[in-house]
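We both want to read discrete structure tokens more fluently, so let's practise on a single case. Would you write everything just below, so we can both look at the same thing?
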Amino acid sequence: MKTFAVILLSFATFAVHAADRVQAGQWETTLTMATGKPMVSKYCIGAAEAKAMNGDEAGLRKYLEESTASNTKGRCLVKSVKLEDVTATVALVCGKTEVSSTTSYFGDRYESKSSNGTTVAGKRLGNCPKP
């Protein structure tokens, strides 16, 4: 559950400054937990999801609340969302565990650090593969 919360935070905090917003396409993330081997995953973000992620702070919070509730079956809640320049900070609460993540964006890549020592590096690879 903790790993999922960190992954969700890294995916969820894409919306920031207009020049650095998430683009639809295939992304790769490298998640490194404080005590483990890096985990690499690839995922596609569709146009509708990118649009939701690129909203203002209130729109992003709504998107995160809905996706968090769905993905965790109601076990995790969004505590706070803050956007400032090219940095996004999101806090999730899962039971008694709270994880806060701060993500900085650099165009087609991002870096995220979480309060539990986890780091996530993401980069856009290009268009999503055709099914």
The chain has a mean pLDDT of 82. The radius of gyration is 14 Å.
